[in-house]
Write a structure and sequence with these properties.
Number of strands: 0
Number of helices: 6
Low-confidence stretches: none
Order of helices and strands: HHHHHH
Oligomer: single chain
Structural class: mainly alpha
């Protein structure tokens, strides 16, 4: 019969390796990688277009490609490739993807456009107006349909390449 100390040691070592299994979670890694690639693309396209480095583009929303779309598309595709496209997990992932992509081109895009108009109105206020000194609202919130589509393509490619890498590694 094993002692309590032996059982605790075994449970501790198995739970420790259990925590590290997150680094082998292919859908999670695909999603994080797609997000990271999209953010770096935004960072470099901002430099290319504006000839200045903007570190906010590494974490900010809006712009080409949509990192939200890339993230959820990579997640859904990776879940589908790993678990099958007919299962409940894929159904949940694809519905989440549709909601996020719809929201990016709908509510968030229009909120950004409204913020742009409100900032212009506040800018034109006389200096003595109480709102004249207010902080500008964030304008880059949503995405145009092409930005969402390119994000979706990036997420799909990231998940498929990751899947092929995992197949060759086995």
């Amino acid at each position: 019969m094993r002692s309590i100390d032996q059982r605790l040691m075994e449970e501790s070592s198995s739970s420790s390796s259990h925590y590290f299994s997150i680094f082998k979670n292919y859908p999670l890694l695909s999603a994080v990688l797609a997000f990271t690639i999209a953010q770096f693309i935004k960072f470099f396209t901002t430099w290319y277009k504006e000839k200045r480095w903007d570190l906010k583009r590494l974490v900010g929303s809006g712009g080409m490609p949509s990192s939200h779309s890339a993230t959820v598309t990579a997640l859904a595709m990776a879940v589908g490739l790993q678990e099958g496209f007919g299962g409940s997990l894929f159904a949940i992932a694809i519905i989440l993807t549709c909601i996020v992509m719809y929201d990016a081109t709908g509510v968030r895009l229009h909120a950004g456009r409204q913020a742009e108009l409100l900032n212009q109105i506040v800018y034109e206020l006389p200096a003595e107006h109480p709102l004249a000194e207010s902080r500008p609202l964030l304008e880059l919130l949503g995405h145009t349909p092409p930005q969402v589509i390119v994000g979706g393509i990036l997420g799909t490619v990231t998940a498929v390449v990751g899947y092929l890498v995992t197949l060759t590694a086995k």
